[in-house]
């Protein structure tokens, strides 16, 4: 791993929650030990919707959107447009889906196989994209303004690593959307750290809201579906399905699971069975992230994993994980109209 001299920032993971406040659209906010950024003087920013730059008046910092694992720049076009309509200058880090194949280089590192992988040099390509995006964003405004980072999914914890490795001089705010910030607990049967130690590294080097109060941390979690366990405390049996071997608790469950893929869902009971099966699949994903299946989350990341000690932690009901697969009105994601209004004030 490339070595780098880090500035002597003081890191603290102290946790000071206040009372939860129920807000509109059924979400709760825990206001934690976090300093709001000072008001910004009016500036002129350069925006472009037709390829030509124009200058408008604004007192808001430029925004840099950091794509999540498997996503590309174009996935955030609607979010970018929504933020620009509200007077923000927005840059999305340039990432393509094939770019993520670069992470396969980690397979050549023995630390990958021991679960002690470090972000560098495997993810240096992504950090370079962040650096370029920040530079581009700053060039679009007059004066030396800091930027607000909006990290979706893995983009949130990658932003934390970036700040630890390259400093925070250009960064005022980090908003994470559905980011799995915390590593899975150790010693739980069937749980494998999908990051191969990367999240352990992140939380050792820059725990919690490490760079507060110089950087404001806002962590947004979604409650779209609650996961379920694949089996209860009953004696398990095994059924073969198209998904492989599946553990069930009785012959009725085995028969139900085996027939689900061909079910027409022509009555309410069958629909409920299908929903339950989906919740079990989602629950297995949650378990790999936080060690527990029967928890709420956004369909990919459990709520408990998307919050950080010392951050302003927000939970939004009915919010799906990704712009890919999101739809109105039954499956909005963090950047959908009617949802982003609950976190965009932190960019203003």
Short description:
The chain is of the alpha/beta class. It has seven helices and 14 strands.
Q: What percentage of the residues does DSSP assign to strands (E)? A: 15-25%
Please give the alpha-carbon distance between the first and last residues. 37 Å
- What is the name of the CATH class of the largest domain? Alpha Beta
Largest sheet, spatial ordering of strands: 1-2-14-9-8-7-5-6
Can you identify the CATH superfamily of the largest domain?
Alpha/Beta hydrolase fold, catalytic domain
Q: Per CATH, what is the topology of the largest domain?
A: Rossmann fold
Q: What's the mean pLDDT score?
A: 76
**Alpha carbon gyration radius:** 21 Å
The percentage helix is 10-25%
Low-confidence stretches: 1-57, 233-254
Number of strands: 14
Q: Report the total helices.
A: 7
H and E string: EEEEEHEHHEHEHEEEEHHEE
CATH architecture identity of the largest domain: 3-Layer(aba) Sandwich
The computed structural class is alpha/beta
The coarse overall form would be globular
> What is the total number of structural domains?
2
Pfam families: PGAP1
Keywords: Endoplasmic reticulum, Hydrolase, Membrane, Protein transport, Transport
GO molecular function: hydrolase activity, acting on ester bonds
Function: Involved in inositol deacylation of GPI-anchored proteins which plays important roles in the quality control and ER-associated degradation of GPI-anchored proteins.
């Amino acid at each position: 791993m490339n070595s780098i001299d880090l500035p002597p920032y003081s890191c603290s993971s102290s946790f000071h929650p206040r009372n939860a406040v129920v807000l509109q659209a059924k979400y709760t906010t825990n206001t934690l030990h976090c300093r709001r950024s000072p008001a910004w003087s009016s500036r002129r920013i350069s925006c472009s919707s037709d390829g030509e730059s124009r200058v408008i008046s604004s007192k808001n910092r430029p925004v840099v959107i950091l794509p999540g694992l498997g996503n590309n720049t174009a996935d955030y076009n609607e979010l970018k447009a929504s933020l620009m309509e509200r007077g923000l200058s927005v840059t999305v880090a340039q990432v393509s889906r094939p770019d993520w194949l670069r992470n396969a280089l980690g397979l050549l590192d023995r630390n990958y196989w021991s679960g002690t992988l470090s972000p560098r040099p495997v993810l240096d390509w992504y950090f370079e994209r962040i650096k370029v995006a920040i530079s581009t964003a700053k060039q679009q405004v007059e004066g030396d303004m800091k930027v607000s980072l909006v990290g979706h999914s893995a983009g949130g914890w990658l932003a934390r690593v970036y700040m630890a490795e390259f400093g925070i001089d250009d960064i005022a705010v980090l908003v994470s959307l559905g980011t799995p910030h915390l590593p899975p607990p150790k010693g739980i049967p069937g749980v494998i750290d999908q990051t191969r130690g990367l999240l352990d590294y992140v939380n050792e080097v820059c725990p919690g809201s490490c760079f507060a109060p110089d950087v404001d941390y806002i962590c947004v979690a979604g409650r779209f579906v609650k996961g379920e366990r694949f089996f209860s405390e009953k004696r398990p049996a095994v059924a073969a399905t198209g998904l492989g071997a599946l553990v069930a608790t009785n012959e009725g469950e085995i028969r139900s699971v085996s027939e689900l893929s061909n079910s027409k869902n022509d009555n309410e009971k069958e629909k409920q069975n299908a929903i339950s099966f989906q919740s079990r699949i989602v629950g297995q994903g949650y378990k790999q992230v936080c060690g527990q299946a029967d928890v709420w989350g956004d369909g990919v990341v459990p709520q408990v994993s998307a919050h950080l000690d010392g951050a302003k932690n927000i939970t939004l009901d009915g919010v799906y994980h990704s712009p890919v697969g999101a739809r109105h009105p039954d499956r909005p994601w963090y950047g959908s109209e009617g949802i982003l209004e609950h976190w965009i004030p932190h960019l203003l």
